[in-house]
Amino acid sequence: MIPGAVFMSLLAGALFGVFKGVALVVFTATTGASSCYFLSKLIGRPLVFSLWPDKLTFFQNQVAKRRERLLNYMLFLRVTSTLPNTFINVASPIVDVPYHIFFLATFIGIIPAAFVTVRAGIALGDLQSVGDLYDFQSIVTLFLLGVLSVTPTLMGNKGKP
């Protein structure tokens, strides 16, 4: 939610390594998103309605349509960034996304992006060329994180025709 979050994620990677850096970034990003959620729940309704009336109507319709599998939908939004994260943070309480679903989707959904930025922060110190950012281990790890983050959606659709 704050300007420069990507740079702080890069710095977390350079200072703390992959595991601690990703954990720190995910924890702080989820905490920040949760703060936005609760602030919006308390005082944000008029602001969100005035800034994004069309987007809010679209989001409200999508949430209502996907109420049974709302976690899957929210996870999809976080992983793909279909809607801006700032909008998701402030609009979710207004369209009645329960906090536990918002929290889980945020926590799990930002792991792939956090991994990429933290890894980039580590790589920046040793960077000789752009090709150095794309080693086989990074690509496989990123692929596995992506598969893991959409697994709930894939498992939920098994019973559907």
Keywords:
SNARE associated Golgi protein family; VTT_dom; 161 residues; transmembrane helix; transmembrane; mainly alpha; membrane
Structure, briefly:
With 161 residues, the chain is mainly α.
Number of strands: 0
Helix count?
A: 7
Shape: globular
Q: In which range does the helix fraction lie?
A: over 70%
Order of helix and strand elements from N to C terminus: HHHHHHH
Uncertain segments are none
The main β sheet shows up as: none
What does the average pLDDT come to? 84
The radius of gyration computed from the alpha-carbon positions, rounded to a whole number of angstroms, is 17 Å
N-C termini distance? 39 Å
Share in β-strands: under 5%
Class from helix and strand fractions = mainly alpha
Transmembrane segments: 6-39, 75-95, 101-122, 134-155
Keywords: Membrane, Transmembrane, Transmembrane helix
Organism: Abeliophyllum distichum
InterPro entries: TM41A/B, VTT_dom
Molecular structure report:
By secondary structure, this protein is mostly helical. It has 7 helices and no strands. It has helices spanning 5-51, 53-65, 70-80, 85-91, 99-109, 111-126, 136-156. The longest helix has 47 residues, at 5-51. The protein is globular, with a radius of gyration of 17 Å. It starts with a helix and ends in a 5-residue tail after the last helix. It is found in: Membrane. It is a multi-pass membrane protein. InterPro entries: TM41A/B (IPR045014), VTT_dom (IPR032816). This is SNARE associated Golgi protein family. The chain crosses the membrane at residues 6-39, 75-95, 101-122, 134-155.
